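Q: Here's a chain of 175 amino acids. Please give me its 3D structure as tokens.
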Amino acid sequence: MHTKIVLLGYMGSGKTTIGHRLANELKLPFWDLDEVIGQMFGMSVQYMITRKGELYFRECEQKALKVVISNQAYILATGGGTPCYYNNLEVIKNSSTSIYLQCNPGTLAERLVPEKQNRPLIADIEDDFMTEFIAKHLFERNPYYQQAHYTIDANNSPDIVLEDVLSALDVKKVE
């Protein structure tokens, strides 16, 4: 059985939602990398990015990633940019089973516009330009995301996405 699973994907792709459900299904601990960063460094990711800058945040993110992956078993929801910085993707691929939750820009925009004030990287993007902004960002990040061990269509409901993840991992869902 897979006991070290890392979920990759753009913000809004469902990493935290699916991560919680997958952890419950597989009876593994769940970690959200943003929460780990907050606990380790005593400030929220939003505060860290707006007050200390993205570079400082990425350095903290790398340290937090290394702490989580040193555990024996986990489901980890990364930040959207985590695999794109430093050697994070290499570390993830060499220590765990990675799953890319792939969504199209339109789906992501629908999910993100209502909560964009909680997301510092998109808080200032006008709603009408959100899909275009996401499409550009995805184009830049896809070379990293595509290196995951598995790619799952995450445009669907959480129930369907969870079933698809379990199927990819060759795990039977407990009824």
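Q: Can you summarize the key feature?
A: The domain at 4-167 is CATH 3.40.50.300 (Rossmann fold).
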